[in-house]
Amino acid sequence: MSVRPILIIPDSKLRLVSAPVAKPARELASLIDDMFETMYDAPGIGLAAIQIGVPERVITVDLAREGEDKQPLALINPQVLWTSEERSVYEEGCLSIPDFYEEVERPAKVRVRFTDRGGAECEIEADGLLATCIQHEIDHLEGKLFIDHISKLKRDRVMKKFAKQARREA
Ligand code: GNR
Ligand code: NI
């Protein structure tokens, strides 16, 4: 198991559309272990494989707070079956856009089909922060970031700041 580096914008890999998982079971299990370790280390409540440079459709989520028992959830090839008309707004952040937070409106509830880490076909209906987090992660699989849901003015400002930082570090 290892903590892997998290890609930061404007890394172009973050814009890739991830492919359905094709890995052998052992490699997939090891990817998921690394994703949880990386997510807990950050710390974050969700992670998509592309954030550690792997363009495959795997996400990890854990909304447990510090001191609570862990609630690790891995979703392989997640598919949105239904979203509610009702919307909700959360202040979102992203490990690939450090220290930037903005409110995003999304469907309040979502029903998702996925394969779990044991290979079982599952469905969950999520609401609250879990619904938002799962949608944020599924967006990553499409090369989409939460800043794509905010105003162009704010997005351009944050992209510019990170582009400048990347140039300084180059
Ligand atoms: O850690 C994270 N927190 C968060 C807060 C509100 C909405 C979504 C998230 S996901 C984010 C980790 C991350 O970047 N996942 O891709
Ligand atoms: Ni993110």
TrEMBL record:
<keyword id="KW-0378">Hydrolase</keyword>
<comment type="similarity">
    <text>Belongs to the polypeptide deformylase family.</text>
</comment>
<dbReference type="GO" id="GO:0042586">
    <property type="term" value="F:peptide deformylase activity"/>
</dbReference>
<dbReference type="GO" id="GO:0046872">
    <property type="term" value="F:metal ion binding"/>
</dbReference>
<keyword id="KW-0408">Iron</keyword>
<keyword id="KW-0479">Metal-binding</keyword>
<dbReference type="InterPro" id="IPR036821">
    <property type="entry name" value="Peptide_deformylase_sf"/>
</dbReference>
<protein>
    <recommendedName>
        <fullName>Peptide deformylase</fullName>
        <ecNumber>3.5.1.88</ecNumber>
    </recommendedName>
</protein>
<dbReference type="GO" id="GO:0006412">
    <property type="term" value="P:translation"/>
</dbReference>
<feature type="binding site">
    <location>
        <position position="136"/>
    </location>
    <ligand>
        <name>Fe cation</name>
    </ligand>
</feature>
<dbReference type="InterPro" id="IPR023635">
    <property type="entry name" value="Peptide_deformylase"/>
</dbReference>
<comment type="function">
    <text>Removes the formyl group from the N-terminal Met of newly synthesized proteins. Requires at least a dipeptide for an efficient rate of reaction. N-terminal L-methionine is a prerequisite for activity but the enzyme has broad specificity at other positions.</text>
</comment>
<dbReference type="Pfam" id="PF01327">
    <property type="entry name" value="Pep_deformylase"/>
</dbReference>
<keyword id="KW-0648">Protein biosynthesis</keyword>
<feature type="binding site">
    <location>
        <position position="140"/>
    </location>
    <ligand>
        <name>Fe cation</name>
    </ligand>
</feature>
<feature type="binding site">
    <location>
        <position position="94"/>
    </location>
    <ligand>
        <name>Fe cation</name>
    </ligand>
</feature>
<feature type="active site">
    <location>
        <position position="137"/>
    </location>
</feature>
